[in-house]
Amino acid sequence: ETGVTQSPTHLIKTRGQQVTLRCSSQSGHNTVSWYQQALGQGPQFIFQYYREEENGRGNFPPRFSGLQFPNYSSELNVNALELDDSALYLCASSLGAGAVYNEQFFGPGTRLTVL
Amino acid sequence: SQQGEEDPQALSIQEGENATMNCSYKTSINNLQWYRQNSGRGLVHLILIRSNEREKHSGRLRVTLDTSKKSSSLLITASRAADTASYFCATDRNAGNMLTFGGGTRLMVKP
Predict the structure, then answer these.
(1) Which residues of B touch A55 (CB under 8 A)?
(2) Is B75's Cβ below 8 Å from some Cβ in A?
(3) By three-state DSSP, how is residue A43 classified?
(4) Could you say which of A51, A54, B96, B109 is the most buried, measured as most Cβ atoms within 10 Å of its Cβ?
């Protein structure tokens, strides 16, 4: 157990819908990163939030957006769902962002299926 | 897109044997990390090696890094059935935890 939790565990949506995934960081961690992992592939970095501001973004379109709250919990929102959005979505929390390495802890993931 | 490649994509060995997985990457890095994933669930951090290090050990794990070849290897010694999982390398360019993962090696250890 890493202390990072995600909800829901599984989710089924239809193409064109919107979805919100949630992540609760490990206590005291002020940085959260989100990753998308398609079946049989490695995770791909979506974006990172540090103290409620977006701190970096991978190669994902604007319909992928996020929020980080004052308690450092986080949301990933995906609009206009496409079939290729079907994947395991992982969040990871850490303390700090850059310059000095701090270990990152991953949650168990949310499996999203888009029909 | 993935940073690099992992080799082999799948590996099947008997319990007690050693397992070696290789990872190549494309850009300069601050550190390289290895993760384990069971059955498509969350990732577990195994070991980190910094760009100025060449070798690191942790229990039955040994990691090497060759920055001139942009490659790393993970050796698991005396494997156990419980080591069956997918293993991923991930590079971090600036210690900011914005990781770029490889495609993974699926390891099966037969009892």
Answers:
(1) 96
(2) no
(3) coil
(4) B96
